[in-house]
Amino acid sequence: MVGTTLTQIRTRIESLASDDGTYELVCGRTGERPVPVDGLRFPDRSTAETAARAARQYRSALRRYDPKVPYYDLIVSEYDDGPGIGGANATADGWATAGATPGLPEPPSDLDLGADADGGPECGDGGERSERVEFCHRVAAAVFEALVDADHRAVETAVMDSYFDLAETMSSADDLCLRLLESMATALHVHLTSAEQADVLERAASHLASRPDSAGALGATLAEMERLDLVGSYTCSPWRPGPDASTRSAELTLEGYALSAREGRLPVLPVVLDLYRRAESWKPVSLHVTPAEEGWHATLSVSSKSNAVGLASVPIHERAAD
């Protein structure tokens, strides 16, 4: 993407929000709180107006790739738990911050993105916005940015179409983010070769926070998945050597995995992308998945020499007979 990225804009908006803020942004026509300001509150009107400009820039950027992205007339509203637009009461001068008129381009933003793309504050519980929702959106945004960078237009369109289809039918932000990752993993599998998938994952990892040390990367990834409740619990065996010194493998079990199987395949995009982010030297080359008692059993193979393999969605194999 040329210029400011979606990831940077969203991070900037989130840096303006506060858990105990008394102002929020809603659509003056429908009362909706659209992405990327859904569930966020801001400490004062001026800050909320800055966030509104950033949100319009974010949605305008999306519209460059999908002209069907809906317009919203964003207004600053003082939040309370009583009746009003979407549960908030819009004050009269809030209408001055309205966004674009439907059918017309949104105005350009003079937003100063001084914050680092990955340096914004971590989002807490924040009401409707769980850390799991936040993580899922960051993964989705990073992958979308990577698709734009690599000029995979067919996949961009498939992902955006899926997102808006889901957004129109789902009211839960948590469920929406999970289903979006499932759809995104499927789109990567359907439209891209394994090498292209691997390239997209490498690019997406570069859009996320700086890579931690690679030592213990697999354990750190699984612990993060459990912390975010993307996995209920897990086990992980020690690494065992492969046919040569450049390969190794580990046995995993994942119970309570939050993403659902689709057409005989398991979407593992968030797990694999987090592993890409952490393990600079050892790249995933195989992930063999079978059903287990309370979830999934997997054999992960990595290599320090072979090219990485695209593993956004992997086939589910039959469990071996006892």
From TrEMBL:
Residue ranges of domain DUF7552 in the record: 5-78
Protein name: Uncharacterized protein
Highest taxon in the source lineage: Archaea
The DUF7551 domain, residue ranges: 133-316
InterPro entries: DUF7551 (IPR055973), DUF7552 (IPR055974)
